[in-house]
TrEMBL record:
CDD domains (alphabetical): DEADc, SF2_C_DEAD
Limits of the Helicase ATP-binding domain: 34-205
Organismal lineage: Bacteria, Pseudomonadati, Campylobacterota, Epsilonproteobacteria, Campylobacterales
An annotated GO cellular component: cytosol
Keyword Hydrolase belongs to the record: yes
Name of this protein: ATP-dependent RNA helicase DbpA
Length: 455
């Protein structure tokens, strides 16, 4: 098969790196936007999360990078720390064929002073949240004069979170001569206004596959409020889902549903705005690596989530409007995969439902939920916590190597590995959890003993 990234006339080593990352064919968003963005043109891209947009803006950033010029050349703004971290990881992967590229994240929720120290040591690319980036600008910690590219990722979410003024202040500090790429799931008046103020003769690109019925199968069920929790196992069974995200409107509802689901024999985690950053990170790790196959979340807490392979989204509560509904269902059917989104509503919520139906005319209204007793959702993995991370020079390969050598695990027995500055997580097939826990505590990883705990 021909790797059609070759059509972009990238350097051979860049094509080889893309191929090693299993990027065989461009997504629609990449195919439409890259010919323009690689020419240095400003672009506005309307595309849902999971459409390949991160690669779409990262390829031009990496392609034009001058690694010998040790100065910030690209600034990427994201709505949340989680998304910023994920974007930074993706850019680092795309830079693997270039030596000594420094990608720095500047986000809230983590200590400020270490970021100041990192900025003193320079960087090529900065990925951050508007509030924290603006704070560094206001304290003269960051040099912006060499920036030639600005990316606004999930611009609609940043505006929803009240970042308009912050974004405009940041842009006032940037060089006027630059390329700007704006990515947004929606293109409403606020995005139109923002883009008209900051882009120069932009090319507008729309992904026609944004939340189409062929990709996301949407079903609505009218139910009584007190029936909702007992219907969840049936919905999960009917979809044969392995990963489920349940949305609620209130934090107190998350706690209530979690208790009810646990009593029904399911493992779940909760994501709400009460969690501090470390617990939030751990919750996302446990869900994304399938140790806990169900996550219950509020809309505020779920902003900026970038988790693949969510089979089923359940709107336990109807979203407050079609914009929030679009955001919710976009968590499934990512990167061209199919997904199912189910909404439970009561008679009193029909006005909201009809508003959503105007945006999504292919919604199916179901009367009953079929029984599927043969399927039971179970977690395939367990997660181990290791009290060592990036600051200890710990890498995923070190953990894998120790597990294979000491616990006799096969590579397929080891799932996701997430490495943070001072700690790490590794997913292990649950039948090997006790063996892996014992061996990691008894043996050195990269020449050093670490404490390992189950999660």
């Amino acid at each position: 098969m021909i790797n059609n990234f070759k059509l972009l006339q990238l350097k051979e080593e860049f094509i080889i790196n893309l191929d090693s990352l299993e990027y065989k064919f461009m997504t629609k968003v990449q195919e439409k936007s890259l010919p323009y963005s690689l020419e240095g043109k400003d672009v506005i891209v309307q595309a849902k999360t999971g459409s390949g947009k991160t690669v779409a803006f990262s390829i031009p950033v990496v392609n034009k990078l001058n690694v010998k010029k040790f100065a910030i050349q690209t600034l990427v703004l994201c709505p949340t720390r989680e998304l910023a971290n994920q974007v930074a990881i993706q850019i680092k992967k795309l830079c693997r064929h270039i030596h000594n590229v420094k990608v720095l994240t500047l986000c809230g929720g983590v200590p400020f002073k270490p970021q100041v120290a990192s900025l003193r040591h320079k960087a090529h690319i900065v990925v951050g949240t508007p509030g924290r980036v603006l704070k560094h600008i206001s304290e003269n910690n960051i040099e912006l004069e060499n920036i030639n590219t600005l990316v606004l990722d999930e611009a609609d979410k940043m505006l929803d979170m009240g970042f308009y003024e912050d974004i405009m202040q940041i842009i006032e500090s940037l060089p006027k001569k630059r390329q700007t790429m704006l990515f947004s799931a929606t293109y409403e008046k606020n995005i139109e206004e923002l883009s008209s103020n900051i882009l120069n003769e932009p090319i507008f690109i729309q992904d026609e596959e944004v939340h189409t019925n062929e990709v996301i199968n949407q079903k609505f069920y009218e139910v009584k409020q007190e029936e909702k929790s007992e219907l969840l196992p049936k919905l999960i069974s009917l979809a044969k889902a392995k990963s489920v995200l349940i949305f609620c409107n209130l934090k107190i509802s998350c706690e209530k549903i979690a208790d009810e689901i646990f009593e029904l024999g399911y493992d779940c985690v909760i994501l709400n705005s009460d969690l501090d950053q470390k617990l939030r990170d751990e919750t996302l790790v446990l869900f994304s690596n399938k140790s806990y196959p169900i996550m219950i979340a509020t809309d505020v807490a779920s902003r900026g989530l970038d988790i693949d392979n969510i089979d089923l989204v359940i709107n336990y509560d109807v979203a407050k409007d079609e914009k929030v509904h679009t955001h919710r269902i976009g968590r499934t059917a990512r990167a061209g995969a199919n997904g199912i989104a189910v909404t439970l509503y009561t008679k009193d919520e029909m006005d909201k439902v009809l508003e959503i139906k105007e945006k999504f005319p292919h919604i199916v209204f179901e009367k009953t939920i079929q029984e599927e007793d043969s399927y039971k959702l179970e977690s395939l993995y367990r997660t181990l916590y290791i009290n060592g991370g990036k600051k200890h020079k710990l890498r995923a390969g070190d953990i894998v190597g120790t597990l294979i050598a000491t616990a006799n695990l096969a590579k397929d027995d080891i799932g996701n590995i997430d490495i943070f500055p001072f700690h790490s997580y590794v997913a292990i097939k649950k039948e090997f959890e006790k063996t892996a826990l014992k061996k990691l505590n008894q043996n050195k990883i990269k020449g050093k003993f670490y404490k390992v705990y189950p999660r």
